[in-house]
Amino acid sequence: MNNYFELRYFKRTAKINYLLITLYLSISLTAHVIANRLVVIDSVPIISAGFIYMFVFVLTDVFATYNSRKIAYLIVCLEALCNLFFIVYVNIIAHMPAPSYFPATTKMAYEIVFSPILILYFANLAGTFISAIVDLSIFYYFYKKLKWQFFFASFLSSIITISAYTWITDYFGFRHTFPRHVIELTTYNLMTNFITLLIYSIIGQLLVLCIFKYLNRK
Q1: How confident is the model at residue 3 (pLDDT cuts 50, 70, 90)?
Q2: Which H or E element spans position 135?
Q3: Are 61 and 150 in contact (CB under 8 A)?
Q4: pTM assigned to the model
Q5: What's the burial of 177, exposed, middle or buried (CB within 10 Å: 0-12/13-18/19+)?
Q6: Beta-carbon contacts of residue 96 (< 8 Å; ≥ 6 apart)
Q7: Where would you tag: which of 44, 65, 67, 190 has the fewest CB atoms within 10 A of its CB?
Q8: What are the φ/ψ torsions at residue 99 (nearest 5 degrees)?
Q9: Is the predicted pLDDT of residue 133 greater than 80, yes or no?
Q10: Structural domains counted in the chain
Q11: How many CB atoms lie within 10 A of CB 82?
């Protein structure tokens, strides 16, 4: 009976991982594509990636609740490698020669849109990748050792790491593109990250409850 339950538990864990990893990588790749696109809400400039990228941090913590530590760290590394492949390939294609009948303005538009992404990626690699590892360590301490609820453990651990990583990634990512507004953008992005993180942490708490209910179903 125990062997049967363990097998079912493993299969259910694998199914959830497939779904969440797909969502996780999709959000991360999308955030990198639109990171250089700024929007204005009530006269406030917002980095568009900030609306969705905080869910990556929350999903990392969700993985950590029912997977081993090694798998959680592996998923963080997987995200970095997938982003690297995507960004390098896109940059190579954007700067390759185009047919004579391909509009020059269109070719230039691709270069303008995708060229800054490489800088943003390496800024994220230095900031987000390291902070994700740190965030997981803090989350494990709050969640596993102190036995906090997922919402509080995830939200507080992410607040600690995001407060530091946002200044690093935004400064190095936008200092060449928007040198005169980099501090303003970073400040507003930090506020956006806190707000969206709160929302995604609530969603994460609901996800964890549903996942454990599904995993432990008879």
Answers
A1: low
A2: helix 130-140
A3: yes
A4: 0.87
A5: middle
A6: none
A7: 44
A8: -60, 155
A9: yes
A10: 1
A11: 16
**What's the per-residue H, E or C state across 26-65?**
HHHHHHHHHCCCEEEECCEEEEHHHHCCHHHHHHHHHHHH
Which two tokens mark 203?
């969603």
**Please, are residues 56 and 27 in contact by the beta-carbon 8 Å criterion?**
yes
Cα 175 → chain centroid: 21
User: 174-201, pLDDT tens digit by residue?
Assistant: 877 788 888 999 999 999 999 999 999 9
Q: Which residue do the tokens 């913590």 mark?
A: 61
Q: Are 112 and 37 a contacting pair, CB within 8 Å?
A: no
Amino acid at 100: S
Nearest alpha-carbon partner for 173 in 216, 94, 118 = 118
What mean pLDDT do residues 145-174 have?
Answer: 88
89 within a domain of the structure (yes/no): no
Residue 140 lies in a domain: yes
Query: What does the pLDDT average to over 163-169?
Result: 81
Q: What pLDDT sits at residue 61?
A: 95
* Helix axes of 182-215 and 2-34: crossing angle, nearest 10 degrees: 160
